[in-house]
Each structure stands twice: as C-alpha cells, then as structure tokens.
C-alpha cells in the first residue's frame, strides 16, 4: 500500500532529511508498486533530473565562457598595455629626435652666421643685423653706427711670420675686439683682416668713443702668438646711418672713412658725418 503524503509528513521532516533522498527511497520501495501516483512521481523525478543535468551543463558552459572571457580580457589588457608601452617608447624617441633636430637646426643656423677662423659673427650676420636695425630706424627708432676696423700692416705679419701665425693673430685680435665692446653692439669679421662693429642707437660721438675703447684695449694688451709679442694697431672708419638711405650706403661711407684714416697715417679713427660737399 502506498502511503499518503500526510502519512509521510512526519517522516519527511525527520532530521531534515534531503528531499531527493526521500523521493529516491519512495521510488525504490517495492511496497509502492502499483500505486497510481508512483508513475507520475517517477516521471517527475526523471524530468527533474534531466533539467538538473541541463542546468549543470549550462552552468559549466557559462563558467567556462566566463573564464575564457576573463582570460581574453586579461589578454587584451596585456596586449593593450604592451602596445601603450611601445607607443610611449616611440613618443619618447620622437621627442628626443625632434629635440635633436631643433638643436641641430639651431647649431647649423649658428654655424652659418659664424666665421670659422675667429668664431666671430660673419658678413651674413652683419647684413641681417643691418636690415633689422634699418627697419627699427624706419619705425621711428634711434639710428645706429657702423665701424669698419682694419689691422694696420697685417701683410707684413704674414710675410715675416707666415700665414699660420697670421691666422692666430686674427683670432687673438677678434678676442680683444669682442672683449672691448659693450651692450648690444655686434662684432664681426668682415673679411681678411677687416672687422665690423654695429652700434645700435648710437650717436657719431658715441661710436668714436667705442672705437677709441677698442684701440685702447689693443694698446694695453699686446698680442702674443707662437712666442712672438706683437704690438699691433688698427685704423677705424665710422659712419652713422642716415634715415632713408640704404644701409649699404652707410657701409660705403664707413669704408671711405677707414680709407681716410689710413691716408692720415693709420692707427687712428676717422668719422664720416654723412654731409656731402
């Protein structure tokens, strides 16, 4: 005889017995054979077990997929981090390269404006500076002066001591000239044994004083080259830029003033006042 649920209720609750174990015991009990509910209970049990198996498979697949997704996510993150490191490295290399190119361009620009022998600015830089100074005068600024300096009797130095000593004399002369100018004045090698000073915002008297300072510096510091002490002098021609003229005209006037200083005996300063007779 098959017991009713009511008859089994006390037993089902005894010691918290597991539901599955109780169902399995009821189905295995031969005393319930032929009971009208046994077949239904058996079908329900099999269906339940089938569903549980499916749930377990789904759970397994879900767990496996989540594990794979986590691994994939970690892999993507790792690849992303590696790629970001590579990008960072490339960026640093690019920054260093750009900085190097800026430094190189600056060095090339500086070299293009420097005389290779003396290290002073060269004729190219003089022309650029004169254009800038002329533009400032045109805009209402104060005018500037140009001084052209020539080493007296330099040919005799080359003839007596050789061109190597002559080059060293020019180097020392350049150092002396550069150390005896002040403010924004520019000192450059014009060519051969000639040098140029550009004196911004200067009167003709101020330019004469600057030229005299250069001569005094040479007098107080004789040049010693290759064991030879040389007391050299310079002749200097000075001109002040006249507003409205081309700066090359001011250079020509300074050149003529230099020629006049040499005519008058060298080792002197001659200034062109810009007045034509």
From TrEMBL:
Give the GO terms filed under biological process for this record.
cell adhesion involved in single-species biofilm formation; negative regulation of bacterial-type flagellum-dependent cell motility
Q: Which residues are in the GGDEF domain?
A: 142-274
Membrane-spanning parts: none
Q: What is its EC number?
A: 2.7.7.65
A Pfam family of the record is GGDEF
Q: Name one GO cellular component term.
A: plasma membrane
List the Gene Ontology MF annotations in alphabetical order.
diguanylate cyclase activity
Recorded hits in SMART domains, A to Z, give: GGDEF (SM00267)
> What domain of life is recorded for the organism?
Bacteria
Catalytic activity, as annotated: 2 GTP = 3',3'-c-di-GMP + 2 diphosphate
NCBIfam families xref list = diguan_SiaD, GGDEF
Protein name, as recorded: diguanylate cyclase
Q: Which species is this record about?
A: Orrella dioscoreae
């Amino acid at each position: 005889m098959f017991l009713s649920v009511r008859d089994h209720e006390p037993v089902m609750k005894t010691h918290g017995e597991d539901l599955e174990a109780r169902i399995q015991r009821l189905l295995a009990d031969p005393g319930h054979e032929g009971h009208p509910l046994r077949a239904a209970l058996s079908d329900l049990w099999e269906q339940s077990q089938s569903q549980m198996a499916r749930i377990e498979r789904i759970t397994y697949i879900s767990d496996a997929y989540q594990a794979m997704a986590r691994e994939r996510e970690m892999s993507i993150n790792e690849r992303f981090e590696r790629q970001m490191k590579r990008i960072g490295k490339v960026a640093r290399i690019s920054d260093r390269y750009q900085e190097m190119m800026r430094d190189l361009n600056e060095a090339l620009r500086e070299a293009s404006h420097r005389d290779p022998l003396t290290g002073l600015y060269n004729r190219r830089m003089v022309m650029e500076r004169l254009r800038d100074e002329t533009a400032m005068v045109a805009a209402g600024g104060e005018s500037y002066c140009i001084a052209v300096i020539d080493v007296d009797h330099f040919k005799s130095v080359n003839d007596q001591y050789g061109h190597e000593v002559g080059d060293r004399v020019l180097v020392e002369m350049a150092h002396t000239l550069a150390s005896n100018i002040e403010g924004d004045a520019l000192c450059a090698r014009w060519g051969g044994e000639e040098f140029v000073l550009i004196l911004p915002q200067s009167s003709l008297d101020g330019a004469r004083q600057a030229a005299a300072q250069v001569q005094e510096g040479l007098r107080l510091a004789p040049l010693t080259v290759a064991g030879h002490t040389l007391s050299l002098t310079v002749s200097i021609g000075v001109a002040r830029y006249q507003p409205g003229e081309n700066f090359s005209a001011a250079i020509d006037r300074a050149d003529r003033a230099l020629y006049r200083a040499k005519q008058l005996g060298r080792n002197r300063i001659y200034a062109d006042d810009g007045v034509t007779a």
